[in-house]
Amino acid sequence: MVVDNDAFTRSTLATALEGRGLQVLASFADARSCLIDLPSLPTSPEVAVLDLDLGVGPNGLDVATALRSRLSRIGLVMLTHYRDPRLLTTDIPRWPAGMRYIAKSDVDDVDILVTAILSARESPLRAPRGAGAPDADLAVLTLTQIEVLRAVAQGYSTPEIARMRSVSVKAVEKVITRICEQLDLPRAATHNQRVQLVRAFVRMTGQGDAIPSASDAVADFS
User: Whole-model pTM?
Assistant: First the structure.
């Protein structure tokens, strides 16, 4: 079954998976409808493909945990724009065993998703090496750094972030500097540090083309 709050994505996924010979028992837009209607399905699903961000209410990790409590051997595949779930929320529940974690930007062929689904069905409690891990770029960031990065991307100033976290401005500046180092962001004076941080956040949340680079902007007018 598929759980995604975007109607076009649900329809596209169902069509693509059925085109590869997989039966899609049902698709749901949110956690509530999924969990309420689960008992009425003609048969129990073997694998659930879940989006992480389901809008207001429980997220995909919450749904995955609830599904695993009801169906102990259901395979779980998280298909999301977020390269690390901490970019959506730092309140991460215990990670269900064996869950595959795939960034949508990495799926340039539906067979990648099909392979993950078949693997999850075969070994629902044991994920292959590397599956379910955050993006390599983000794995080096601490929870504090993720929270500060998100705050910068949301437009908060350094003093505002300091007040929110009850720390000094200098402490926040050190965290921001460390984030830039960890993500290997440009340090030249011609590159605005905050712009680079926002671009990194946008890219890591699956919106990589939302903010054009300077060269792209020039090309648009050439």
Answer: 0.76
Residue 221 lies in a domain: no
What CATH number corresponds to the domain at position 190? 1.10.10.10
Identify the domain containing residue 145 by its residue range. Answer: 140-215
Whose structure tokens read 């749904």?
Answer: 63
Q: How many whole angstroms separate alpha carbon 103 and alpha carbon 92?
A: 17
Round to whole Å and give the CA distance between 31 and 38.
10
What is the DSSP code (8-state) at residue 134?
P
Nearest to 177 by CA among 188, 165, 193, 164: 193
C-alpha to C-alpha distance for 83 and 220, rounded to whole angstroms:
28
pLDDT in tens, 154-201: 899 999 999 999 999 999 999 999 999 888 887 766 678 888 898 888
For residue 94, the model assigns a pLDDT of: 77
Mean pLDDT of the chain: 85
Domain count, the chain: 2
- Residue 188 covered by a domain: yes
42 and 130 assigned to the same domain: yes
Locate all alpha helices (DSSP H) within 38-157, ordered by sequence: 60-70, 110-122, 136-139, 143-153
pLDDT digits (tens, 9 = 90+) for 41-53: 999 999 999 999 9
Task: Return d(Cα 5, Cα 118) in angstroms, integer.
Answer: 23
Q: Specify whether 170 is located in the same domain as 122.
A: no
The reply to whether 220 falls in a domain is no
